[in-house]
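User: I've been trying to design a sequence by hand for this structure and keep getting stuck. Would you show me what you'd pick, starting by listing the structure so we're on the same page?

Assistant: Good idea, let's start from the same input. This is the structure you sent:
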């Protein structure tokens, strides 16, 4: 099992290099096998097609990027600190792995099944992370204890995804992943959305207490 895991890791590393240099559409199973000096049959033993390799690469990238976030959330002293670290992480992901997300795919009215799978994977991870952030905020007394962490996190991810799609449409005709100013502009918009959202979660109505005190 250890040997199989090692070979699988080598395949994903080789595929990632190919995707980064040539893009997903111009990468073939034969080229990945050639880079590894193995037969196509050996490659198909581990992955049924290029799309399954792509999904595995994205899964690994997300796991690597979010590896330290769970422990950080548990020890964080404020939700602002978590959000700041999260935004730094997300910006690094966009800079280092933009070629995996296919900007042109995001702006299609009907994205491919592969892109839908990627979207679902990213959203699942973000919902998990943001719900943990909300629970942490409640536990340290920052956020309203009546907040439903999972439902609120899902709503927030939907808002952030809408922001991302709009930005992709703006960038569709001249997207430059190396334009750090453009990327920072997008990240600043996301920061504003997150702070507005979390400031709203800090609201703790006192109507019931006031009514009770007047009776």
């Amino acid at each position: 099992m250890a040997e199989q895991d090692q070979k699988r890791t080598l395949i994903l590393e080789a595929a990632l290099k190919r995707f980064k240099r040539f893009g997903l559409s111009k990468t073939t199973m034969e080229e990945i096998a050639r880079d590894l000096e193995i037969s196509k049959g050996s490659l198909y033993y581990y992955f049924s097609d290029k799309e399954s390799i792509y999904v595995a690469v994205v899964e690994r990238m997300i796991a690597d990027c979010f590896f330290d976030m769970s422990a950080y959330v548990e020890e964080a002293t404020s939700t602002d600190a978590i959000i700041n670290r999260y935004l730094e992480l997300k910006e690094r992901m966009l800079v280092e792995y933009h070629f995996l997300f296919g900007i042109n795919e995001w702006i299609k009215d009907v994205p491919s099944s592969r892109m839908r799978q990627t979207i679902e994977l990213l959203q699942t991870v973000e919902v998990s992370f943001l719900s943990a952030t909300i629970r942490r905020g409640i536990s340290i007394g920052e956020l309203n204890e009546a907040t439903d962490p999972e439902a609120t996190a899902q709503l927030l991810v939907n808002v952030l995804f809408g922001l991302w799609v709009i930005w992709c449409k703006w960038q569709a005709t001249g997207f430059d992943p190396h334009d750090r100013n453009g990327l920072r502009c997008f990240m600043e918009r996301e920061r504003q959305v997150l702070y507005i959202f979390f400031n709203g979660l800090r609201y703790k109505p006192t109507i019931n207490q006031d009514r009770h005190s007047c009776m």
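That's my pick for every position. To get oriented when you compare it with your attempt: The radius of gyration is 21 Å. Residues 207-215 have pLDDT under 50 and may be disordered.
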